[in-house]
Design brief:
Layout (H helix, E strand, L loop, with lengths): L3 E8 L3 H13 L5 E5 L15 E2 L6 H19 L12 E5 L1 H4 L2 H13 L4 E4 H7 L11 H5 L7 E5 L3 E2 L2 H15 L5 E2 L3 E8 L15 E8 L2 E10 L5 H5 L9 E11 L4 H7 L12 E3 L5 E6 L4 E6 L7 E2 L11 H15 L10 E9 L6 E5 L2 E5 L5 H16 L4 E3 L5 E3 L18
Parallel strand pairs: 1-2, 1-11, 2-8, 4-13, 11-19
Antiparallel strand pairs: 3-7, 4-6, 5-6, 9-10, 10-11, 12-15, 12-16, 12-17, 13-14, 14-15, 18-19, 20-21
């Protein structure tokens, strides 16, 4: 097979890959940039499996600026450019018990949001009961609830600038904009087997590169042949370790399985009433809601007249160092035995409701729950979004572009500037995130 050479090869056409490809090409119009993915279209792996909810309600100022600027860009794309993302400001609603609400971490979270200008509102138990049809806020005398260690919903922490969107539409926006300006047609169905590591300069010695030689990644070896580039961008999420480990780069990330189950309201009047909850947003629907116990959450799906149900289970759900095939397979028993009992206790409208669809994927977690954008030995890594890659995609694409061009600062949407190395490993300057679903 013949070899091809490019200025940049971007591996991974999920939302982080296509956003990065677009911004690098936009600001380096003379460069030959190749975008490749092993799937047959852009955004078909974990991006498509996401709950696709977006929020700026984080405890760290780092995640606040990454998400707030990205969300504002999404609004601009939809309202000013006319590209429908189905971005709906449903809001985010954390239901919290009194003990949870009074925790120092929650109080600090609210203080940091106030200091950063992130808008939120606190509801008390009486207000929640009046607003949300059928919400169970009192478990006194309920032996099952006690056995399940369920905490009552005493407070609601609500963010009105948050919401949900269609991940496919967001990927489509960046991908279509990238295709308008790129010199090289993106390629799909291309599986990267490993990164190409070579001595610089090459001396054509047997077995090189040797330990005494300088070396860098100079391309990728795929099932379609070898492709060379001055810079390889790796935006493969939970699969990153599979490519970085063999060349001795520690991605500092690992993956965890997450699942979503679809419930339709259909002929259930109580579910329709819940979906059409008034008082939180202009859409007249229930917000993206996180229950006080077990990590169970749900988001409204207005087009389908239903809900997506998920769970951010932590202790007990194992990490995977490399994403495995079974992480893409949903577990029907998991909904029935783990999520449903919790969901139905807080909201009896879900009693007897069963999923009509489900899917699963992998979250790629970083130790501090802040993304990585760093360059090492010819590889520029965009990774570790900890389940919030969609809501940070625009900012991460801009930071990756600035790092590629050697700029000390990246300009995010709205004119805010951040260091292009703030998300790196060596020069990392972030706050640890404590609010992870």
């Amino acid at each position: 097979m013949s070899e091809e050479t490019f200025d940049v090869i971007i591996v991974g056409a999920g939302v982080l890959g296509v956003a990065t490809a677009y911004y690098i090409q936009l600001n380096s119009p003379e460069k030959k940039i190749l975008l490749i993915d092993r799937n047959l279209a852009a955004g078909q792996a974990n991006t498509a499996m996401s709950a696709a909810a977006v929020r700026n309600m984080f405890a760290s100022s780092t995640n606040q600026i990454l998400t707030d600027t990205s969300i504002k860009y999404f609004e601009y794309v939809q309202n000013e450019l006319g590209h429908e993302l189905f971005f709906e400001k449903t809001g985010y609603l954390w239901l919290l018990s009194e003990s949870q609400f009074k925790q120092e971490s929650v109080q600090l979270w609210m203080q940091r949001m106030k200091a950063s200008g992130v808008h939120y509102k606190v509801y008390n138990k009486k207000e929640l009961k009046e607003l949300i049809p059928g919400l169970n806020v009192d478990f006194s005398g309920d032996e099952e609830a006690e056995l399940m260690h369920l905490q009552e919903a005493d407070f609601g922490l609500f963010g009105g600038d948050c919401g949900v969107l269609d991940p496919t539409r967001l990927v489509e926006h960046y991908f279509e904009e990238f295709k308008k300006i790129t010199h090289v047609k993106p390629r799909f169905g291309v599986c990267v087997k490993k990164l190409l590591l070579e001595a610089v300069p090459k001396l054509d010695l047997p077995g090189e590169p040797h330990v005494w030689q300088q070396k860098k990644v100079t391309g990728v070896i795929t099932d379609k042949g070898t492709m060379r580039a001055k810079t390889v961008v790796l935006a493969t999420g939970a699969w990153a370790n599979e490519l970085l480990d063999p060349v001795g780069i520690d991605s500092m990330t690992k993956a965890k399985k997450r699942q979503l189950f679809v419930i339709h309201a259909e002929d259930n009047p109580k579910l329709h009433d819940l979906l059409d909850t008034k008082g939180f947003n202009e859409l007249g629907c229930i917000p993206f809601t996180i229950l006080p116990s077990a990590g169970v959450y749900f988001r409204p799906q207005l087009q389908e007249r239903g809900f997506w149900i998920g769970c951010g289970d932590k202790f007990g759900r194992g990490y995977e160092y490399i994403q495995t095939d079974d992480m893409m397979v949903p577990e029907s028993a998991y909904y029935e035995n783990s999520m449903y009992p919790v969901l139905a206790k807080y909201l009896p409208a879900f009693e007897s409701a069963r999923p009509v669809n489900s899917w699963a994927g992998g979250y790629c977690y970083s130790p501090d729950r802040i993304p990585f954008v760093y360059e090492e030995c010819g590889v520029l890594v965009v990774n570790g979004a900890s389940g919030s890659g969609i809501m940070k995609a625009d900012a991460l694409g801009r930071i990756a572009d600035a790092l590629y061009r050697g700029e000390p600062e990246a300009e995010l949407f709205g004119g805010k500037h951040v260091s292009s190395k703030m998300l790196s490993i060596k020069d990392r300057n972030v706050e640890i995130e404590s609010v992870v679903i």
